């Protein structure tokens, strides 16, 4: 059994229309969301044997802010392939993981992370959390998948159960969607 944790970057700042997508930083709400999720992950006692992440600015800032609450410093492997990757690319990346860590955290982007959940977790009506992901996988959301595999090289479609899904609004209602006034 392997544990795959997915963490979508927090809300980014769109105020500078000239900034390249890769270089967009977090906005104030994103900073609050990353901090809240970092505190949640620490309080849950969850540990990661490895962390792999997109090097995009909004991801690096999400990790920097969240990790202040993670109770320990984590070495991060930056992998450009995660930036705007499809689910198929992410699965290939997971199959290539060296050393077969028991627990892995991947920090990246949508739609890749959301699609990865759809591919790994069967659509058989037994996962109410998967149904929530079908509605939306918001920024700064943290998900835990238990994969019925012995080696990362064996990861494949339908091999996982989604056991945890925490959205920023679950921790602080002010981090939820902005409602029309």
How would the blueprint of this fold be written?
Layout: E1 2-8, H1 28-44, E2 50-53, H2 57-67, E3 77-78, H3 87-95, E4 103-108, H4 112-120, H5 128-135, E5 142-147, E6 160-166, H6 168-171
Parallel strand pairs: 1-4, 2-3, 2-4
Antiparallel strand pairs: 1-5, 5-6
Helix pairs in contact: 1-2, 3-4
Describe the structure.
With 181 residues, this protein is of the alpha/beta class. The protein has one domain: 3-Layer(aba) Sandwich (Rossmann fold), CATH 3.40.50. Helices cover 32% and strands 18% of the residues. The chain has a six-stranded mixed beta sheet with strand order 3-2-4-1-5-6. β2, α2 and β3 (77-78) form a beta-alpha-beta unit.
What is the straight-line distance between the termini? Answer: 47 Å
The biggest beta sheet is recorded as: 6 strands, mixed
Please state roughly what percent of the residues sit in beta strands, choosing from under 5%, 5-15%, 15-25%, 25-35%, 35-45% or over 45%: 15-25%
CATH architecture: 3-Layer(aba) Sandwich
Structural Rg: 15 Å
Topology pattern, helix = H, strand = E: EHEHEHEHHEEH
Number of folding domains?
A: 1
Average pLDDT figure: 92
User: What are the segments in which pLDDT stays under 50 over at least 5 consecutive residues?
Assistant: none
Spatially, the strands of the biggest sheet line up as 3-2-4-1-5-6
The coarse silhouette is globular
CATH topology: Rossmann fold
Helix content range of the residues, please?
A: 25-40%
Q: Identify the CATH homologous superfamily.
A: Phosphoglycerate mutase-like
| Number of DSSP-assigned strands | 6
